[in-house]
Amino acid sequence: MVEAIKEAEIKEVKILEKPWVEKYRPKVLDDIVGQDHIVRRLKHYARTGTMPHLLFAGPPGVGKTTAALCLARELFGEHWGHNFLELNASDERGINVIREKVKEFARTKPIGAASFKIIFLDEADALTQDAQQALRRTMEMFSNNVRFILSCNYSSKIIEPIQSRCAMFRFRPLKDEDVAKRLRYIAEQERLELTEEGLQALLYVAEGDLRRAINVLQAAAALDIVITDENVFTVASRARPEDVREMMILALEGNFLKARDKLREILLKQGLSGEDVIIQMHKEVFNLPISEPKKVALADKIGEYNFRLVEGANEMIQLEALLAQFTLLGK
User: Fold this and answer.
1) How far apart are CA 319 and CA 299, in angstroms?
2) 264 membership: H or E segment, kind and range
3) Which of the following CATH numbers is that of domain 2-170: 3.30.160.390, 3.40.50.300, 3.40.50.720, 3.40.50.740?
């Protein structure tokens, strides 16, 4: 009896520790948000019970892995786990993986009424050239028994022979209204109070990446059940957009020392890295109340100093030098 109670407690802990991204991952194609043009095509494959090799390309956090899992569930029903192999190519990207794991799975017959199995290669653009050449041959040899779904951020890194064998699906960054709808649903299920300012902060941080938005929401919920913009920016390690804009405007107005103090406050008190700050400066420069030619000049300077940071220069010195350039351009 005691052992049964302990086992139940362990199971409960495991359930509680399940990441929100997995907990709220859609189970069917109808639940996928923001990719209607892709869902319609995938539903056709689910209805007909057949599909070609697929190539999913697009930025992270927009539903590529979710779409593959939902398609497998609708195609294979309760046997989907036996007929679906997921490999992360960034961890296992050598030619041996294609020769061993992929071929071994492809040789066996599908379970149940399915006519084929699915091999899902996540982050396929991380596969080496040799592995991609081996994969091309494997896709030909076992096409009667298995279908491949390749997911990548950059389709240009996939060799042409593989691209020509696949139907291309280009995923777009999610619209703010789609991300907001899902976040409100999660907040309701978790009994969180999501303020409008907190929601706008989540959308600002996410930039169309729903996975990032959910993870930041979960981190903010650990601080307080009331999700405010302050909590969101704290856990996301981002400066407030208005603070970055204020710093830039001070520099443009000639108040270099005040702008420098604001920069140090952002870097030291809020714990941001120099690269984080410069990325936010690039995002906010287009919202400044200045002329278009000045925005162009500032964007050019930001690009130059970002390169210096990437090359390993001292971030405090370079960011102060960038603010000095803002002051000179503002005169």
Assistant:
1) 14
2) helix 256-264
3) 3.40.50.300
For tokens 């220069």, what's the residue?
Answer: 313
Instruction: From residue 148, give the alpha-carbon distance in Å to each of 53, 89, 103, 211.
Output: 5, 13, 12, 24
Cβ atoms of 193 and 225 closer than 8 Å: yes
Q: Are 205 and 232 in contact (CB under 8 A)?
A: yes
Identify the residue whose tokens are 């938005």: 213
pLDDT in tens, 213-247: 999 999 999 888 999 988 898 888 788 888 899 99
Which two structure tokens, joined as six digits, stand for 5?
């109670």
pTM summary value = 0.78
- 239: tokens are 């400066």
> What does the alpha-carbon distance between residue 193 and residue 227 come to, in Å, rounded to a whole number?
6
Distance CA 94, CA 79 (A): 29
